[in-house]
Amino acid sequence: MGHSPANLVVVLTFAVTALTAVLGLPLTAAIRRLRRRPSRTSRAWRAGRLLAGLAGAVGLVFIVLFTLMLTGETSILYGVPDSLRALLLLPPLFLALTVAAITTTVIGWRRQGPGVLARGHQVVLLAGMLALVWFCRHWNLLGWQFG
């Protein structure tokens, strides 16, 4: 699965699912507040949703900046620029947020969880996040050695 089309599918899958969280979760919370409806889900479930949204945002920022860097940076041919070193701090952060989101989602699922649609969305979102983790691992972007 090292071919460009497969990698593009993985990154796009993540991007679409992450956008649903980054844009959808705040919108859902705002609608709930406007309707003055308290959340009936457990604190762990809400934490899992928040962590998934944060991981989605970090992953999207990484994908956009990494793409811009690869398409516009010529100095990368002569060594690792400091901007790339800084950017490569994001994948480990994304991984940590993903693990935390999965853990709190499982805990929240066992407690007072939400309805079927929210659970389904969270599963799809976490699958997209795992796809990006795979991509970063496959391309040695997690704990990259500059040697």
Written overview of the protein:
The chain has 147 residues and is mostly helical. It contains five helices and no strands. Helix 1 (4-34) packs antiparallel against helix 5 (116-138) and helix 2 runs parallel beside helix 5 (116-138).
Shape: elongated
Q: Quickly give the structural class.
A: mainly alpha
Beta content: under 5%
Mean pLDDT: 86
| Poorly predicted parts | none
Q: What fraction, in percent, of the residue positions are helical?
A: over 70%
What composes the largest sheet?
Answer: none
Radius of gyration: 17 Å
The total of helices stands at 5
Order of helices and strands: HHHHH
How many strands?
Answer: 0
Report the span from N to C terminus.
26 Å
Produce the secondary structure layout:
Blueprint: H1 4-34, H2 43-72, H3 82-87, H4 90-110, H5 116-138
Helix pairs in contact: 1-2, 1-5, 2-4, 2-5, 4-5
Briefly, what is this?
With 147 residues, the protein is mainly α. The protein has helices spanning 4-34, 43-72, 82-87, 90-110, 116-138.
Brief descriptors of the model:
147 residues; mainly alpha; 76% helix; 0% strand
